[in-house]
């Protein structure tokens, strides 16, 4: 998918230092004892929010990272960024929102604080906290605490300022894990000058919540998305099953008091948003569908829209987003100034802390087109920064804001629906090998397993970034030279954390003596139950799988399987 042309506002690069004088070297110091082994540096987490904190009509950018644990507030004057304030925030800001909470005409910064995970079993504990800051005011970093709750898993998963009761006054909707599996949905409102809270619901694995008049009757209701559902019943008494019962796939539903109105989603839901996309007066529900517990092999981020007709719902498929295992954040905002909201989505990539930020726009013909703003981002925020329509602020070490350039090309061919399912690779042994789904061949002519009948085929699932995969290439070169044309090696790969251009460049640089088969839709990986890599299959002359070998070790087992397959008589063609 092509990247649209974007206008970026970024921080200026730092000047490099000039030549330095050379100083004489001192005599070597006595050898010091080796330093104790250090733990690897944990990954850096980035969060971002945006909004007008000083009432000048332009939004400030609010950023936080887990290295220095500071919230930095920056403004853009049309030429560059200026840091206005920086304050320490030791807890993890699960969510940040800029809104006028007290009705004085000025926005505050609302932060849902806690941890990214669980409290330690011993030592200091962290509570879920909802606190308000005025970071640009003198003394504004003295927070006002609106809500606090002790929990073993203090993760804030949803934070919205919205009208929850139809009185045209904003309330705060917060969702957080009140225990390992259950999520509290809480309303916090200002009444008679004080902040009061009320628990709305306690939902098993219901962390993603939005609110709106989704039934079209003037009453706001909560929409809950769940990546996982209820646990299956325990095994019957006397059963040999010892593992805990698995959970069913997730779902989505509307909370109507104590009643749950089920929504027609495909799988587990990891993101929800509510908004009127077609200006008919009744909001639609936008869902990040497609999550599965076996995410490495089966999950696929799917964007869909639910249109209500009474209590019936139409499911409009938009895109199965390549390389994204789930769609985590969804925001609806008019980014072009045409009065119609676009859909801004952030996914999660496998083996990454973030994912692609992608914008969707409905065309005059009623179809959807999309544009990728960034391939690997941990969070985003939408706000009006400078003149013109709102922009998309991207979380990262530097201030980065992406604007939609109306002259840029959109992707009009979106990802098609992919029927994902789980395959146990061990069950393939002794059965006909699944077909290869390949979009591009590198270093060889297109072929198929049917065309290779009578030969022994070695499928080596790999990637350019996979060190164990590359480490076994010398052994595979030996096999190629040793066994000659009766052994055909093919290297299937996908576009997970790599591009087709990177695959081609790797192939040319390393001059691989076997062809590479690129499958951007992951069909071949799925059919063979591949995850993790490297994963090697040996296919006999008759087309049946003889060996499924995971990992880069014990390659003698692979060679033995190849020898045994080659020893079988050739099949007449």
Task: Summarize the structure in words.
This protein is mainly beta and 573 residues long. It has five helices and 34 strands. The strands form eight sheets. The protein has a six-stranded mixed β-sheet, covered by helices on one side. The longest helix has 13 residues, at 555-567. It is elongated, with a radius of gyration of 27 Å.
> What's the N-to-C terminus distance?
41 Å
Mean pLDDT reading:
88
Cross-sheet strand order for the largest sheet: 29-32-31-30-33-34
Largest sheet: 6 strands, mixed
Radius of gyration: 27 Å
Q: Which structural class do the helices and strands define?
A: mainly beta
Assign a percent range to the helix content: under 10%
Beta percentage is: 35-45%
Total count of strands: 34
Low-confidence stretches: 1-28
Choose one word for the global shape. Answer: elongated
Query: In DSSP terms, counting alpha (H) and pi (I) runs of 4 or more, how many helices?
Result: 5
Question: Characteristics of this structure?
Answer:
single chain; 573 residues; mainly beta; six-stranded mixed β-sheet; four-stranded antiparallel β-sheet; 5 helices; 34 strands; 40% strand; disordered N terminus
Strand and helix map with partners:
Elements: E1 6-10, E2 46-51, E3 60-65, E4 70-76, E5 81-88, E6 92-99, E7 108-114, E8 128-133, E9 144-149, E10 156-162, E11 171-177, E12 182-191, E13 194-204, E14 208-212, E15 221-231, E16 247-256, E17 259-262, E18 271-275, E19 284-289, E20 302-309, E21 312-320, E22 324-333, E23 342-349, E24 355-362, E25 368-377, E26 380-383, E27 391-394, E28 400-404, E29 440-442, E30 456-461, H1 467-471, H2 473-483, E31 487-493, H3 500-510, E32 516-518, H4 523-527, E33 535-539, E34 545-550, H5 555-567
Parallel strand pairs: 30-31, 31-32
Antiparallel strand pairs: 1-28, 2-3, 3-4, 4-5, 6-7, 7-8, 8-9, 10-11, 11-12, 12-13, 14-15, 15-16, 16-17, 18-19, 19-20, 20-21, 22-23, 23-24, 24-25, 26-27, 27-28, 29-32, 30-33, 33-34
């Amino acid at each position: 998918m092509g990247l649209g042309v974007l206008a970026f506002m970024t921080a200026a690069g730092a000047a490099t230092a000039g030549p330095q004088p050379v100083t004489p070297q001192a005599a070597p110091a006595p050898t010091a004892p080796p330093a104790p082994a250090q733990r690897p540096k944990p990954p850096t987490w980035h969060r971002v929010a945006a909004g007008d904190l000083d009432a000048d009509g332009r939004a400030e950018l609010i950023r936080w990272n887990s290295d220095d644990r500071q919230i930095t507030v920056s403004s853009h004057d049309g030429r560059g960024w200026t840091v206005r304030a920086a304050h320490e925030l030791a807890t993890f800001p699960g969510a940040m929102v800029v809104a006028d909470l007290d009705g004085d005409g000025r926005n505050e910064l609302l932060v849902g604080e806690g941890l990214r995970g669980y409290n330690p079993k011993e030592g200091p504990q962290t509570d879920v906290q909802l606190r308000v800051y005025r970071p640009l005011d003198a003394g504004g970093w003295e927070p006002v605490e609106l809500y606090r709750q002790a929990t073993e898993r203090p993760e804030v998963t949803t934070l919205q300022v919205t009208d929850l009761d139809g009185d045209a006054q904003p309330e705060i909707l917060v969702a957080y894990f009140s225990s390992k599996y259950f999520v509290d949905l809480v309303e916090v409102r200002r009444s008679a000058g004080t902040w009061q809270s009320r628990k709305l619901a306690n939902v098993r694995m219901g962390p993603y919540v939005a609110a709106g008049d989704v039934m079209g009757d003037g009453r706001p209701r909560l929409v809950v998305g769940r990546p996982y559902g209820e646990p299956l019943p325990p095994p019957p008494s006397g059963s040999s099953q010892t593992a805990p019962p698995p959970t069913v796939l997730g779902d989505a539903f509307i909370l109507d008091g104590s009643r749950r109105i089920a929504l027609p989603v495909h799988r587990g839901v990891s993101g929800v948003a509510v908004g009127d996309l077609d200006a008919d007066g009744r909001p639609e529900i936008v869902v990040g569908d497609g999550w599965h517990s076996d995410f490495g092999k089966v999950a696929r981020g799917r964007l869909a829209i639910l249109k209500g007709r009474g209590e019936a719902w139409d499911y409009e498929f938009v895109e199965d987003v390549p390389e994204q295992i789930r769609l985590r954040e969804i925001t609806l905002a008019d980014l072009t100034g045409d009065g119609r909201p676009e859909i801004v989505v952030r996914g999660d990539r496998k083996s990454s802390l973030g994912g692609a930020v992608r914008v969707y726009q409905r065309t005059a013909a009623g179809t959807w087109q999309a544009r990728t703003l960034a391939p690997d981002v941990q969070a985003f925020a939408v706000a009006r920064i400078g003149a013109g329509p709102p922009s998309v602020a991207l979380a990262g070490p530097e201030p980065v804001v992406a604007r939609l350039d109306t002259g840029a090309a959109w992707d009009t061919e979106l990802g098609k629906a992919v029927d994902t399912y789980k395959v146990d690779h061990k069950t393939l042994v002794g059965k006909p090998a699944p077909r290869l789904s390949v979009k591009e061949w590198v270093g060889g002519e297109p072929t198929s397993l049917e065309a290779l009948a009578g030969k022994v085929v070695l499928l080596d699932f790999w990637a350019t970034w996979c060190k164990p995969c590359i480490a076994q290439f010398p052994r595979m070169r030996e096999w190629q030279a040793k066994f000659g044309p009766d052994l055909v090696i093919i290297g299937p790969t996908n576009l997970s954390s790599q591009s087709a251009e990177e695959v081609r460049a790797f192939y040319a640089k390393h001059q691989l003596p076997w062809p590479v088969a690129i499958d951007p839709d992951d069909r071949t990986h799925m059919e063979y139950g591949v995850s993790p890599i490297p994963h090697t299959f040996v296919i006999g002359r008759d087309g049946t799988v003889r060996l499924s070998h995971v990992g880069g070790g014990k390659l003698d087992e692979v060679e033995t399987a190849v020898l045994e397959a080659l020893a079988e008589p050739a099949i007449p063609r």
